[in-house]
Amino acid sequence: MSKERIQISEALYDIMPSDYQDLVKNATYGKEDRGWKDIGNTKELIEQHSLCAGCPESMAFRYILASLPNPEDTVMVGSTGCTSLVFPMVAVHNIHSLFGNQNAIASGLKRALSVRFPGRVKDVVVLAGDGATVDIGLDMTLQAWFRQEKFTTICFDNELYANTGGQESGLMQKGFVAKMAPVGKLFDKVRLPEIARESGCHYVVNCTVSKPSLVEKVIRNAVHIAREIGPTYLQLYTPCILEIGKNSMEGLQEMRDSEKPTERFAYKEYISEPAKQLLAELAAKDKERKAAAKQLAGQA
Amino acid sequence: MSQYRVLPGPEHFLPPAAASMGIYLPNPGEAHINGVIVPEDKAYEEAAKQFLMAKVPTIFPGPLVLWAWNEKAAKKATAVRHLYNTLKECVQPGQKPMLIPMPDYRPKYPKINPEVEINPNHPNLTIWHNKIDCCMFIGVHCHQANLSLKIIRGGTSCYTIAMCAQAGHEDAMLSFRDASVEKIMKLADWVRKLKGTVQPRLTSAKSGASN
User: Fold this and answer.
1) A223: left (phi over 0), alpha (psi -120 to 50) or beta
2) Could you say which of A33, B33, B69, B206 is the most buried, measured as most Cβ atoms within 10 Å of its Cβ?
């Protein structure tokens, strides 16, 4: 876990495009306390992206990449959808899987990494849309959880197939009419967070990405728990402003409106007993580390 | 033996993989020129000649030498820089050697800046923009090099050289294998040796890449 592993050969340093030089100099690889507050002060692990202006998914991407505890040793697995337009611009190893296959790919990858690098912590994080997670890839998603595969699954829930013009998805809310679903959804939004809990996930969160500090917390928790205990699942509301008829600047408000206590994205969290214990241990260690650093700073 | 020859293009939109046309890879100590197996020394001479003939001879170092993964990678990077410096010293006025990196393989959107980098998914953009008529790949993972070499052969008239650390590339017009610091330095020596003996094709219709 160190920035020293990411270095440009000295003899060719001057010809490297400035974004790579910047990545080596100012990115937060290896920084223990990395988080969303680094955004704006350091080089982000996401370069320019091709999502729509004001897309909440782009905010979510930035917060997640800023919050991964171990980006230099993390592999992200993506799937078809708007997210696949962003992955090429991300400075974290990533794999694009066939539509819906992401959790199967991640299962094999995680196992292969533990064999190939037995002494090193390697995190695997799946990041896919609701179509890939709940409709096309539900089989792979659930089977990975049943098998207790040790990786995190993140679902960017925009409640429809945004990338292809607004078809109905399993996570769409009942009654919603979309451009390519004119009749309106006839059944309820699939309750995947509950299914995740029953399927063996040790940490499940349902929330929006309106609060970066909250995103940071849940990402760190999910990755740490997946690393040590078993599967974790985050369902993050990233509305498609185009498909729900909003303007670029209205994405944040849409998320705030949807996270009110009675709304469908009110913050919900489930933590299994072993995961609670792990989080308590991590918090204690963190406290100790911060106290030691404070003491050291005082002495200096 | 196959009658097919791996020649500068533009061949057509989807040129066949040279391997599928019967071109095979050289054994250790050998190289290939246009798909014909030759002793390695002959390939040094031909590569040096092609560099010195070109209007814009260019080296494309890939991630395996651009990033200091280990000491060997850093040494190869130094050798690549030496080759580039030698080229600069040996060309004639009007020739413009370039050193353009391929830092990684991400298909960059919305577009790359072809003045400062090359991307394996659309290498033709960099070739066209800089009017590169001879290039050498080094430190590019084989799969990505094959992809680039085919695209270049398909859509440009650029002469391609592969300085491959593995078994070589059929899809390059000239390919070395088992690339090492010594081999890069030897190529630089050949460039110096042939300095002044090769007529650059500055006014030739073939100069510059076309589509």
Assistant:
1) alpha
2) B33
Measure CB to CB from residue B106 to each of A8, A11, A89 and give the nearest one.
Answer: A89
Flag whether A277 is in a domain.
no
Instruction: Give the Cα separation of A97 and A106 in Å (integer).
Output: 9
Q: Which residues of B touch A9 (CB under 8 A)?
A: 65-68, 73-74, 76-78
The answer to the question of residue A208 being in a domain is yes
Domain span at residue A150? Answer: 3-272
The encoded tokens of residue B148 equal: 């680039």
pLDDT per residue as tens, chain A (300 positions): 466 778 999 999 999 999 899 999 999 998 888 999 999 999 999 987 888 999 999 999 999 999 999 999 999 999 998 988 898 889 999 999 999 999 999 999 999 999 999 999 999 999 999 999 999 999 999 999 999 999 999 999 999 999 898 999 999 999 999 999 999 999 999 999 999 999 999 999 999 999 999 999 999 999 999 999 999 999 999 999 999 999 999 999 999 999 999 999 999 999 999 999 999 999 999 999 989 988 998 887
CB spacing of B67 vs A85 below 8 angstroms: no
Query: Do the domain assignments include residue B207?
Result: no
Considering the domain boundaries, does residue A285 fall inside one?
no
- The CATH number assigned to the domain holding A176 equals 3.40.50.970
In a domain, A284, yes or no: no
- Domain enclosing residue B176, as ranges: 31-193
Taking one residue from A and the other from B, the number of pairs with CB-CB distance under 8 angstroms is: 57
Chain B contact for A15 (CB, 8 A cutoff): yes
Using a CB-CB cut-off of 8 Å, the residues of chain A touching B72 are none
How far is residue B197's CA from residue A79's CA, in Å, rounded to a whole number?
55
CATH of the domain at B148: 3.40.50
Contacting residues for B33 by C-beta, under 8 A, at least 6 apart: B42, B43, B46, B173, B174
How large is the ipTM? 0.93
Q: Tell me if A11 and B80 make a contact (CB, 8 A cut-off).
A: yes
- Mutation to test the A interface, candidates B59, B109, B117, most A Cβ within 10 Å: B109
Q: Copy the structure tokens of residue B66.
A: 């651009």
Residue B18 lies in a domain: no
Residues A164 and A279: their CA atoms lie apart, in Å, by: 40
Chain A CB contacts of B109 below 8 Å: 50, 85, 88-89
Residue B61 with chain A: CB contacts under 8 Å: 12, 15
